[in-house]
Design a protein that fits this description.
Oligomer: single chain
Shape: globular
Number of domains: 3
Strand content: 25-35%
Largest sheet: 6 strands, mixed
Distance between the termini: 21 Å
Strand order of the largest sheet: 3-6-5-4-7-8
Helix content: 10-25%
């Protein structure tokens, strides 16, 4: 191991993959616990649905990306001929009462299948959501994709029998740590350390990867700046990097097993600084910032969420929209800071959690700023202000 590697523990990982039904195979049956938003007596067997392209949207009321895709889903439904297409949402393992109550607040087009026991999920190999399955007119699987990549023109092509190249949905992979134990003569079994960190230089060609399992977080092919940002739980916009440019990429894995969070991150920060030979401290610096404020339209447009607990939390782009969903203004400011690449100061004075979605294409920051102004009552004002920065220098 070279000087740039730090290994505090060794951990084995096993990969488990779950497969969606293969293209062109007969679609598995739709065995719903209950079917909502459909005429009485509606059947969901493939004989009854033959002749229509069926779009299945696997989702849940607690899933942030699922809820962020609702505007796109409803837009799509409005563009499709109901004589040719049937949209069906498949809720993941929740009760009829919960799904029904949610849909009264946030309607979703099409039939609403309740899959309380997960029977449909299991038949379709769904282990992470949202995911969209497209079934052709003959009841055969045409694709497994993601809702944000779904377009009316592509579904029309499926109906006409023309070839379509859908963006494939990612099949779930989980990096689960293999159980390890050590035993000496007459000694009790030892379960592994409370905290462990493994940091090594990435080999050329290593593909970026992020994996989370149990108390373990793993990333491949990340820069030194990304490592520091992760260790300090900051956006790169809050880092003043004064150390020489480190162009190398690293793989790291950190496990925090039951250790209090503040102690875990204290160790994490110290180890990253030691491994990369960095000196890190906080400073107030005057620089260009964006100040987040409410404008005169906020009272009408900025709606306090009706969601409970942590259900559906999301702040970010999804399917042509930017969603602030069951999220407060401080968290929204942090996400905007990440997107705009400069510190964002929250001066809205609002402490509630909100639900608002605005039309915005990923990467179009000017468009996002304008949409937030007009559709959410939120203004981003450029100013020169003091901001708390993390200064990184060579040790």
């Amino acid at each position: 191991m070279n000087k740039r590697s730090l290994s505090l523990a060794f951990l084995l990982f096993a990969q488990f993959a779950y497969a969606y039904p293969a293209k062109s195979v007969p679609a598995p049956p739709l065995k719903f616990t209950q079917l909502l938003n459909a005429p009485a007596g509606t059947k969901t067997d493939w004989v009854s649905l033959r002749g229509k392209v069926v779009v299945l949207e696997f989702w849940a009321t607690w899933c942030g990306p699922c809820l962020a895709s609702i505007p796109h889903w409803n837009e799509l439904a409005a563009q499709l001929d109901p004589a040719k297409f049937q949209l069906v949402t498949v809720d993941q393992r929740e009760t009829e009462e919960k799904v029904s109550a949610f849909l009264q607040k946030k309607p979703m087009a099409g039939w609403a299948g309740v899959d309380r026991d997960g029977a449909v999920d299991d038949l379709y190999g769904v282990t992470s959501i949202p995911v969209t399955m497209i079934i052709d007119r003959n009841g055969r699987v045409a694709a497994a994709t993601t809702p944000e990549d779904l377009k009316a023109a592509d579904l029309e092509a499926v109906y006409d029998g023309r070839p379509v190249r859908f963006t494939p949905a990612q099949e779930a992979k989980s990096a689960l740590p293999a159980k390890t134990e050590t035993r000496g003569a007459g000694e009790a079994t030892v379960q592994g350390p409370v905290f462990e960190l493994n940091l090594t230089a990435a080999k050329p060609g290593t593909k970026p990867f992020t994996g989370v399992a149990n108390d373990t977080f793993e990333k491949h092919a990340v820069s030194a700046v990304e490592l520091v940002a992760d260790a300090y739980q900051l956006n790169q916009a809050r880092i003043d990097w004064r150390a020489p440019d480190d162009k190398r990429l690293y793989n790291f894995r950190v496990k925090m097993d039951g250790l209090e969070r503040r102690w875990s991150f204290a160790i994490y920060q110290q180890d990253v600084a030691l491994a990369l030979q960095l000196k890190i401290h906080n400073e107030q610096e005057t620089r260009r910032v964006l100040v987040l404020k409410t404008n005169e339209h906020a009272r009408e447009l900025l709606k306090v969420t009706e969601m409970e607990g942590n259900a559906g939390k999301l702040c970010g782009y999804y399917a042509g929209w930017f969603a602030i969903q069951n999220v407060g203004m401080e968290d929204a400011a942090q996400q905007l800071e990440k997107l705009f690449g400069v510190p964002v100061l929250n001066e809205t004075g609002r402490s509630e959690l909100f639900d608002v979605s605005v039309k915005a294409q990923e990467g179009d920051l000017a468009g996002l700023k304008e949409s937030l102004e007009k559709e959410a009552g939120l203004s981003l004002i450029e100013e020169e202000r003091p901001a708390e920065m993390l200064v990184v220098e060579k040790e």
